[in-house]
Amino acid sequence: MRTQVPVAIAFIAGVVMVIQFFVPTHHSMALRDTLLAWTRIISAFALVVGIGSLVSINISKLRRLSPGWIYAIVTLAGFAVMAVFGILGTKEAAAPAWRHTLDRCYQWLFDNVQVPMDATIFSLLAFFIASAAYRTFRARTFEASLLLAAALLVMVGRVPLGVEIGAKLHEAIWGGSTTAPVTPEWLQSLTEWVLNCPNTAAQRAIMFGAALAAVAQALRIIVGIERPYMSGS
Amino acid sequence: MEHPGFWHVFSVWVAALLTLIAYSFLYKDNPAYRFVEALFVGVSAGYGLAIVYRDVVIPDLWKPIHDEGDLLRLIPAVIGVLMLSRFHPKISWLSRWPMAFTIGIGAGMSIPATIQANILKQVQGTMVSPVVLDKATAMENAVASVSNVVLIIGVLSVLAYFFFSKEHTGGYGRFCKLGIYFLMFSFGASFGYTVMARVSLLIGRVTFLLYDWLHVGAVLLR
User: Which residues of A touch B202 (CB under 8 A)?
Assistant: First the structure.
């Protein structure tokens, strides 16, 4: 019951989805849509488990008054306010006015708290990436030099300053001649070529390997050799 | 000039202060930053829950059952509730059922989709002619031919590098080394992209602070 049933569920669900792909009839498509809707509903409960874990960790921090308990209050308050406004608020015309007000509060929190913090915290990484790049990109080997060259080319070739530098170099060398072998936008073109050719080649080869591994892993899950759903319970 | 309303000014100040407090981490870790970090975690979790409620629970569960009488939707709801058994150690094994269902569906869906999109389509994209003659000029033909040759050699050499059943020595070893060069080039390009994405976020925040909050952007551009 504890081990066979989950294995059987994973096997049946996986096989049904594979067969559905090769038998795209009206009924099988309807079955696929139903199963996908079911999966969305079940996944919603997985989010509840995750949030339950976050809340219980913060509540236990608060109960023990462990270091940083004050921040647990901030997390719980932020969560409660956003969740209540988001769940009770609505834009539906038939809903009472107080629910419209809650929806406006939810939207305000999203625009002026969630979005600025999200962008700022992710933009902090720009500074850490810069210091990491300094350590990584010291061109000690030919491979490191290639890494540096590609990164610089992508960074410089796709911003207005880089385009301007390319045009100035073109003018300095060929003096605006129409018979020049390259156009003033040569740096942009070179960047595009680097991204579309050598970069695509390497990414494609990596993708092959990852795709084959993903298919093998999915097969192992379906036949029950791999059982990730057994862990943690 | 029309003056902005109180709520607009208040909103800009809230966003600006949160931005500045978050950037204070660049100097060193401090209580104000930790406050913003904790607030961000809480608000993001609440936002995630609200989004799931609005985009999944209402349209996929509540409306089909309440408005259309589709009682079959109660089945995934019951299976989903089993997920909550993880909070009770004695019955936590029940959470394996919804997990197995979700993972099984994902695995079954991914097999044909991955083969089609990530293998067959990519093989098709790599099977290009090394000699191109149908462009307008000889220069364009040459560039397209070189690009195709680079693409073919790049894919094959990187695949050869990842094939560890044959020792990387001799001519084969040199071909694998070429694969490493392609990989390094690609990693560099990916790194460049990542840096640009982060820097563009930084530019966005600085623009907000200068234009929307301090109103000095126009002065600086003069």
Answer: 123, 126
* CB burial readout A35-55, b (16+ within 10 A) else e: bebbbbbbbbbbbebebeebb
Q: What is the largest CA-CA distance in chain B?
A: 76
d(CA A198, CA A192): 10
* B:77-136 residues touching chain A, CB 8 A cutoff: 77, 79-81, 83-84, 86-87, 92-93, 95-115, 118-119, 122, 125-126
Distance from C-alpha of B101 to C-alpha of A72, rounded to nearest angstrom: 34
> Could you tell me if A86 and B58 are in contact, meaning their C-beta atoms sit under 8 angstroms apart?
no
pLDDT at position B2 is 66
A11 → closest Cβ in B83, B102, B104 = B104
Rounded to the nearest 10°, the torsion over CA A146, A150, A152, A154 is 180
Global ipTM: 0.85
Burial of B219 (0-12, 13-18, 19+ CB in 10 A): exposed
Interface of B with A in 184-203 (CB under 8 A): 184-196, 198-199, 201-202
How far apart are alpha carbons A35 and A10 in whole angstroms?
13
Q: What is the pLDDT of residue B168?
A: 93
pTM: 0.85
| pLDDT beneath 50: ranges in chain A | none
Interface contact B187-A150, CB threshold 8 A = yes
C-alpha B106 chain-centroid distance: 18
Q: How far apart are CA B202 and CA B139, in angstroms?
A: 41
Render pLDDT for B144-196 as a digit per residue (tens, 0 to 9). Answer: 999 999 999 999 999 999 999 999 999 999 999 999 999 999 999 999 888 88
Q: Name residues whose C-beta falls within 8 Å of residue B114's C-beta, 6 or more positions apart in sequence.
A: A211, A214, A215, A218
Q: Give the pLDDT band (50/70/90) at residue B103.
A: very high
